[in-house]
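SEQUENCE-TO-STRUCTURE ENTRY
===========================

Backbone structure tokens: a row of integers, each naming the local backbone shape at its residue.

Task: work out the structure tokens from the sequence, keeping to the layout shown below.
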Amino acid sequence: MREFLFPKGDAWLLADSEEIGVADLGDDCLALLLFSDEDLATTYVEKSGLAGKAAKAVVVDRQFLADLRRLQGAGVTHVVIDQTVGRSAPTASITKVIEDAERQVG
């Protein structure tokens, strides 16, 4: 599985004015949808019919780490990376993604 480390230090998630995009993986598992490319995120929104959601750029920095920890505290257990409609995508525990992002941030 590809590591979380994104070469430019940025990523995209799906969001609207009230919430970010997560997927229900079943068995009480929620996953943050995270993308390495804006086009992948935008295409996913268009093909999945997520009304109102848009790709939002985030910088992999200390604020992003704090946001990941906050999501973890709110019940998000995993991160799905570069999801496409109709195909499975790499999934990692949010703990692993936090550890990878910590190494990248330094």
Remarks:
- The mean pLDDT is 87.
- The two ends are 22 Å apart (CA to CA).
